[in-house]
Design goal:
- This protein has a domain at about 10-30.
- The radius of gyration is 20 Å and the shape is elongated.
- It is about 65% helix and about 0% strand.
- The relative contact order is 0.08.
- It has helices at about 15-25, 35-55, 65-75.
- Helix 1 (about 15-25) runs antiparallel to helix 2.
- The longest helix is centred in the middle third of the chain and has 21 residues, at about 35-55.
- With about 80 residues, it is an all-alpha fold.
- The chain starts with 13 loop residues before the first helix and ends with a helix.
- The protein is built from three helices and no strands.
């Protein structure tokens, strides 16, 4: 079986990187040593922050204001 000698994730796009990171998260379930737990917890926290940042970038911060203005215009 061939071994991967080099793997560079720098060229992954944001969504590709997130998908890759989610696969890594799934594999962390195989780590059982007590010494691994703090690193896994830190990784999961960083991944959750990454996920929150991605979710935040899909919303326009002005959308609620515009929706209210639209409702007011419709009611007038």
């Amino acid at each position: 079986m061939a071994k991967i000698k080099n793997f560079n994730i720098k060229k992954l796009r944001t969504e590709e990187d997130f998908g890759f990171q989610k696969r890594i998260e799934a594999e962390t379930a195989l780590l059982t040593a007590e010494t691994d737990k703090p690193m896994v917890a830190a990784y999961k926290a960083a991944l959750a922050a990454f996920d929150d940042a991605l979710k935040g970038s899909t919303r326009n911060s002005l959308s609620p204001t515009m929706a209210r203005a639209d409702e007011m215009a419709d009611a007038a």
